[in-house]
Amino acid sequence: QVVDLAGRIHPAFGKAFLWILLFLYVVLILVPVSMFLRLPRSLKPPGSEDSPEFGPYLDALRKRLASNPNLKGMDLSSRLKVEEGLAVLDRHANEIIRKTAATVFISTAISQSGRLDSFLVLSAQSRMVWRIARLYYQRPTPRDLLHLYANIAGTVFMAGELEDIDIHEQVEPVLSSTLGAMAVTIPGIQLAASILIQSVLTGTANAFLTLRVGLI
Rounded to 5 degrees, what are φ and ψ at 187? Predict the structure, then answer.
C-alpha cells in the first residue's frame, strides 16, 4: 500500500521505494540471525564429575566466562571462582526476568485488547530470551530453542485468551459485599472496580507466565 501510494506521485519513486523496503526487510531478518549465529555454541556438561570429560569441560567453561564482558577482570582460576562467576550471571539473568515480567504486567494490564496483549507478550519474551542468551554468551541448540519458543507460543496464546475471559460475573458478588453501601451511593464505582481488578488479574497472569519462560 505504501509503494502504491508512492507510485501515484511518480512510477520511478514507487519502484525505488519498493527496493528500499525490500532492503530494509532483508536487513531486519539477517541482522538478528547473524548476531545469533555469531554466539558460540552452548557447552554440554558431562553426566558425572568423575567423567574424564569434566576437566576439559571446566576449562572450556572458564575460557567462555573469561571472555564474557559481564565478568571482565574477575578471577576464574579455580572451580569455586567459576561457580561465583556463574552466580553473578544468574543474578543478572534474574534481574532481566523480573524487569521483563514487570513490563508485561504494566503493558497488558493497561491494554484492553487480547490481540495487543499477544503482541506485547511475544515481543517482550522473545527479547528476554535473546538477552539471557547474550548474557551467558552462548547459542542455545535448536532443540533448546524449540522448547523455549514452544513455551512462548503457549504464553502468547494464553495472553490473547485471558482478555476474552469474562470475570465480571465472578467479581461482581465479591465487590458488592466488599464495597457495601458505597457501591450503591457512588454511581459507577462497582464497574470501575471490576475493570481495575480484571486488568490487574490479566497483567498478573501474564507476568507469572513471563517469569516461567524466563526461568526455563
Answer: -65, 135
Q: Report the 10 Å Cβ neighbour count for 213.
A: 23
Q: How far apart are the first and last CA of the chain?
A: 41
Q: What nine digits make up the cell of 33?
A: 540471525
**Rounded distance between C-alpha atoms, residue 204 and residue 104, angstroms:** 9
Q: Can you tell me the distance from the alpha carbon of 82 to that of 56, in angstroms, rounded to the nearest whole number?
A: 14
**Residue 143: all three cell numbers together:** 532443540
- This prediction has a pTM of 0.69
- The Cα–Cα gap between 71 and 4 comes to 51
**10-residue mean pLDDT series, the chain (216 residues):** 85 88 91 79 83 89 88 88 93 96 91 80 88 84 80 80 60 56 53 72 88 88
